[in-house]
Design goal:
Helix content: 25-40%
Order of helices and strands: HEEHHEHEHEEHE
Low-confidence stretches: 200-213
Number of helices: 6
Length: 222
């Protein structure tokens, strides 16, 4: 909820534009997006980017994501993404998850340990969906960097921007505000798709509290 509706629109537009400009249309990548707050909603359900039309459909779905405006249920986000990734009909070489948040795990669950449940769901995402890398963007001062770096980032040890060792290590990038999002997500997708990093180079990345995770999966080569 702290992101606000205006910043949410900036986030959606930045992600949509980065995908539209950087993800190739040769069938190498499949994209899934989960938008989460107190609950998790599937925004893009493992769409193979094998044409300009397929990529445009993903852009449209991202631009239409609703502003959920509530708490930060990381458990729901990881569980939802795990279910989506396991539902793909493709044989997968590599599976990458991008996780972004502006807060700490803080949903209502009757006195349970939010952090422990989040880590358990993250572990299940890795084990059940075969995720090879989880990298993180953390926005603002309300996050818990140690928890995100040591409990969520994968594989460890987590590298901290501007150091990247992708995909062998997960990486963590702090984000000051939503305004830096567009340049930052361009950089992130360029790293994932093995393309030159767009100018102006390194900036803090991905302003996100209520979006969640974008999983990019690479199809097995023939």
């Amino acid at each position: 909820g702290s992101i606000g509706a205006s910043n949410w629109n900036t986030i959606k537009g930045g992600l949509a534009n980065a995908i539209n400009s950087l993800v190739p249309t040769d069938g190498s990548y499949e994209i899934s997006v989960v938008n989460f707050s107190n609950t998790a909603v599937t925004a893009v359900n493992h769409v193979l980017i094998d044409s300009v039309a397929a990529r445009a459909s993903v852009v449209n779905m991202i631009n239409n994501m609703a502003f959920l405006n509530s708490t930060t249920n990381m458990q729901a986000a990881f569980n939802q993404m795990s279910s989506i990734l396991q539902g793909s009909s493709l044989e997968i070489d590599n599976s990458y998850v991008n996780f972004a948040t502006d807060g700490q795990a803080n949903w209502s669950c009757g006195g349970c340990d939010n952090d422990a449940l989040s880590i358990a769901a993250r572990n299940a995402l890795i084990a059940d969906a075969g995720v090879d890398n989880i990298s993180i963007e953390a926005i603002g001062s309300g996050v818990d960097p140690a928890f995100l770096q040591n409990g969520i980032c994968y594989p460890g040890p987590c590298t901290i921007a501007p150091t990247f060792s992708f995909p062998g290590n997960g990486f963590y990038i702090p984000v000051a505000n939503a305004a830096a999002y567009a340049t930052a997500i361009n950089q992130k997708i360029a790293i994932v798709t093995n393309q030159p990093i767009p100018e102006p180079g390194m900036v803090a990345i991905f302003a996100l509290g209520l979006l969640g995770i974008a999983g990019v999966r690479m199809r097995m080569s023939a």
